[in-house]
Design a protein that fits this description.
Number of domains: 1
Number of strands: 6
Structural class: mainly beta
Distance between the termini: 17 Å
Order of helices and strands: EEHEEEEH
Radius of gyration: 15 Å
Number of helices: 2
Strand content: 25-35%
Helix content: under 10%
Length: about 90
């Protein structure tokens, strides 16, 4: 069975919603790098970078903002091939 860990705020690793790999996430300190302090409309912006694909996920007040939706878990390897394709 393929292990799937959904994206979670400040988790050290999860399945990247962009590449699907279970990989370490590097959480970037937005407050340190931007004069506005990483605050948008009174809400705190946080960015995570996937160590597998190097792409970014954006989090606003602990909820993933982008990408807009996460990928679905991978199919169970015991399923028939025609079902896995869906």
């Amino acid at each position: 069975m393929v292990h799937y860990t959904p994206p979670s705020f400040q988790a050290s690793a999860f399945n990247c919603p962009l590449c699907g790999a279970h990989s370490k996430q590097i959480w970037l300190d937005v407050k340190r790098h931007y004069p506005a302090g990483g605050v948008i409309g009174g809400k705190e912006l946080t960015i995570a970078q996937c160590t597998h694909c190097n792409k970014l996920t954006f989090w606003l007040d602990r909820a993933m903002l982008a990408p807009a939706s996460e990928s679905v878990p991978f199919p169970n390897p015991d399923q028939h091939d025609e079902i896995k394709q869906d």
